[in-house]
Structures are given as structure tokens and as C-alpha cells.
């Protein structure tokens, strides 16, 4: 009998891309039966996954009782929390505890947790905008250091090694990125692929905060400063990323390939 892999956020970017990728991996399907969790089973994305062969169940991270039923019989669980929906750390912690409790209660042997790096630990407690100006495109960023980039459709490429060899990777951290790119590298590649004249500029506070709720703006400002001071994944980020990429059997999408695949941009 197949093991059950339960994926949270099945109709979202991470969970959805993971399930769609795994559906094309017979080596994974020979081991796991796929189950997706969503709050709304009537969503077109949920219906499409069900038609593709994924067992779809209803579950809500904010309702621990619903998670116990959704995770019943799960061998492995892939999950993340949803900070941005409420912009509340307390809510996010409660979601994480609810998922972990339900997974342990279901007897899950493997939990793959997708999260941001622990900036508090890295710092010892201590986004881009594109605008048109005078007929030219200006790519505005709030950081200057190299930053990791990932094509979200590649999520499954990072998870497959863990699913195929959970004992080997127990307690290990995979870096979810293709590479670290400096803002100048992003712009130069964008120019080369699109043939457009693009300039790099520093975002002003006004541009950075435009159309962003104040409570979320405060979080983003703090995060941007931490990236500048400590790099996104800390001082060992590059080394950790190289290790991650060496574990994968399907290389991730480069920034150049991503830009090319998503034309036209302007």
C-alpha cells in the first residue's frame, strides 16, 4: 500500500507547483499517494488537481480540528504557514503548532517545512518595483547585496530528494534558490534577454511603500535591512546553496530562462 504525502497550500503557489511536479515523477508516485489540502474544494485549481489524480481534502490552518481529519493516515507532510494573510506573528505561530500537532497525531514520519530563514538567530536580534520614467524602464530595489531567486514552479525539484531518501536528509536544511543574483546581474540579464533598455535604481521610501498596508510595510522595511546586513541566508548561504543544488537530480530554472519563458514583460 502506498504511503500518503499530504501537501498544504495545494491550490497556492508552493503547494500547487509541488503537486503538479510530483505528478510527473513516477519514482515518487511509486512510493507516495498524493493528497492536497485546501480551505475551498470548489476552487478550479482544487478540481483540476482532483481530476489529475490527487486526493483533495478540506483543511484550515486556523482550525486545528479540521487538520486532524485532513492528515489522517499521512506518512509525509509538506507545509508552510501564511503570515501575509493576517500579518500576525501570533497567528503564524498558532498555525505552525496546529499543523505540527496534527501531523504528529497522524503518525507522520516526515515533515518538510517551508519557511524563511531565522533572521533573529542570524542577526543576534538585531521587494522590487518596476517604474517607467521618461520613456525608460527603471528596476527599483531596496537592497544592493546578492539575493536568492527561485522559480516557484521548481518547488518540487527541491523536495524530491527528501521524499526519496528521508533518512539521509533528516534535520537538514535545503536552500530554496537557483542562485544568488546581485541587482546589477538581474538587470543585465533582463536587458540581454528582452532587448529593452533597463536601468537600476534605488527605491525611495515613497515608492517602496506605495499600495502596501502600513503594518506589512513595517515588516518589509525590517527584512530589507536584515538582508543588507546579514545576507538572505546568513554568512553560509552560498555554501549551503551549493550543497543543496548538489543533492538535486533536476536543475532549477535560471533567471535568464525565467525571463525568457515569461516574455513579454513590457
**Percent of residues in β-strands:** 15-25%
In total, how many beta strands? Answer: 10
What ranges have pLDDT less than 50 throughout 5 or more consecutive residues?
A: 127-137
| Secondary-structure element series | EHHEHEHEHHEHEEEHEHEHHHH
For the report, how would you describe the main beta sheet? 5 strands, parallel
Strands ordered across the widest β-sheet: 3-2-1-4-5
Helical region count?
A: 13
Large-scale geometry: globular
Provide the helix percentage: 40-55%
Radius of gyration: 20 Å
Based on helices, strands and strand pairing, what is the structural class? alpha/beta
How do you describe this structure in short?
The chain has 13 helices and 10 strands. By secondary structure, it is α/β, with parallel strands linked by helices.
Describe the structure.
- The structure is a single chain.
- It contains 13 helices and ten strands.
- A hairpin with a 2-residue loop joins strand 6 (129-133) and strand 7 (136-141).
- It is globular.
- The N and C termini lie far apart (50 Å).
- The chain has a five-stranded parallel β-sheet, with helices on both faces. The chain has a three-stranded mixed β-sheet with strand order 6-7-10, covered by helices on one side. A two-stranded antiparallel ribbon has the order 8-9.
- With 266 residues, the protein is an alpha/beta fold.
- Helix 1 (13-22) packs across helix 8.
- Residues 127-137 have low confidence and may be disordered.
